[in-house]
Amino acid sequence: MRAVCHIYPKNIDSCAMMRNPVFRFILYGFFFIGIICTVVGNFLVVLSISYFKQLQSPTNSFVMSLAVADCLVGLVVMPYSMIRTVEGCWFFGSLFCQLHSSLDVMLCTASIFHLSCIAFDRYYAVCNPLVYSLKMSPSRVAFLIVICWVVPILISFGPIMLGLHIAGVDILLPQEVCVFLVNRVYAVMASLIAFYLPMAIMLVAYWKIFKAARRQARQISKKHRNTMKRERKAAKTLGIIMGVFLIFWMPFFTVNIVDPFINYSTEVVIWDIFLWLGYINSSLNPFLYGFFNRSFRKAFFINVQCGNVSWIRELRTFAFM
To answer: Where, by residue number, does the polypeptide cross the bilayer (predicted)?
Structure first.
């Protein structure tokens, strides 16, 4: 079994003895860099969209909300997962383990929900541009963003805090272990809602976008070709971001469904690898925006430059005090 087939320490003082100190230092360094990149990168996305009016669009409303979710992953989920992965046990008690698991499920689900909304937004922008402003009105965008947060909360905090996700699972875990163990029903239903159904929606949306963009490219006049080129580039960029997300999260959600049906025999190290692959996706999104989007690149540069200027001014002020 996932938790039982490993020998866990009887007290937290022995956790530090489970791995070589040098290896632990390397792991902490690697994970810490990932956390910093996640928080800083996504914070720059939020700051850029908030500050620059030219970036404030329906699509970027979803992007901004997605960046908030990814930033929270870096702030409240990844640090505790880092300690659990490196030390091999849990220091923070069973109640906080439930809270951490709930936040983990909620924020990761919120991320993919936002990405499916981005696909929905791009579908109307490319395939139905004449009704885009009507279909993606500010009120509808706000409603979809609320859905992106409310549904993940319902499928995470409710079942986990009430213990419904482990109903019927006859496995007793030590208090020093925080393993997200789920029964078959929750594993299938939560994975379908959080990943597979949104994934199907995204794949269909982007396939239709690809076909529509190719058809319109043949029919459109030279006068409007630049506009269509920008739309195709935006769709391609978001498609790459979507593809990266699926590649990094597919292993975890696949094992998440399979594991309860194979008597929880998946090794802990496999879970850690697949989970951190998903976390890394939260680190990559801001860099994908910055690499592919010229407006974001300019906004990132201005934000960083302004931050450096402010820091220099504060340093000079301090020096002359």
So the answer is: 25-49, 61-83, 103-120, 141-166, 186-213, 234-253, 273-292
Both tokens assigned to 240: 């790459």
Question: Structural domain tally of the chain?
Answer: 1
Sign of the Cα pseudo-torsion (62, 68, 71, 73, in order)? negative
36, two tokens = 């910093």
Can you list the pairs that 10-16 forms with residues at least 24 positions away whose Cβ atoms lie under 8 Å?
Answer: 10/174, 10/176, 11/176, 12/89, 12/91, 12/176, 15/87, 15/88, 15/89, 15/91, 15/176, 16/87
The average pLDDT across 81-106 equals 90
Q: What is the DSSP letter of 215?
A: H
In tens, the pLDDT along 299-312 reads 767 766 665 444 33
Q: Give the list of residues 6+ apart from residue 295 with CB closer than 8 angstroms, or none.
A: 52, 54, 55
Its pTM stands at 0.82
Domain around 53:
12-308
State the Cα–Cα distance between residues 306 and 251, nearest whole angstrom: 40
| Residue 37 resides in a domain | yes
Neighbours of 256 (CB within 10 A): 23
CATH number, domain containing residue 273: 1.20.1070.10
Q: How confident is the model at residue 14 (pLDDT cuts 50, 70, 90)?
A: very low
Considering the chain, what percentage of its residues have pLDDT values greater than 70?
76
Residue 267 is assigned to a structural domain of this protein? yes
- Cα dihedral 247, 248, 253, 259 in deg (nearest 10): 110
pLDDT tens-digit map of 177-209: 788 888 999 999 999 999 999 999 888 888 888
Buried b (16+ CB within 10 A) or exposed e, 104-136: bbbbbbbbbbbbbbbbbbbbbbbbeeeebeeeb
